[in-house]
Design brief:
This protein has a single domain, classed as Roll (SH3 type barrels). It is 30% helix and 27% strand. The chain has 1 helix and 5 strands; from the N terminus they run H-E-E-E-E-E. Strands 4-3-2-1-5 form a 5-stranded antiparallel sheet, with no helix packed on it. The chain is elongated.
């Protein structure tokens, strides 16, 4: 793809950037939603929150963008965008 942006003025570039960022956000949300469709409330999952050790728990609530997982340590509920893997057993 070859898009010539050299003739765009500042306002047009700002608008183009806004549209690009909106499209990227939409694609990311669609990908997350598609991945979440494979999970249900009650499923055991393993996920790795940034800056923390991997956690294992059970999905207790399911929203459009996030799920709530009660971890095995039962210390707290954690709300994360789902970048998880199913755990057997």
């Amino acid at each position: 793809m070859n898009i010539d942006i050299s003739k765009l003025d500042e306002a047009e570039l700002v608008e183009l950037n806004r549209r690009i960022m909106a499209r990227l956000k939409y694609l990311q949300e669609a990908r997350t939603h598609h991945q979440m469709l494979s999970f249900n409330v009650g499923d055991r999952v393993r996920f790795h929150p940034p800056g923390h050790d991997p956690k294992t728990g059970v999905i207790v609530k399911y929203n459009r963008k996030t799920v709530t997982v009660v971890t095995d340590d039962r210390m707290r509920s954690m709300n994360h965008t789902l970048a998880a893997a199913a755990v057997s057993g």
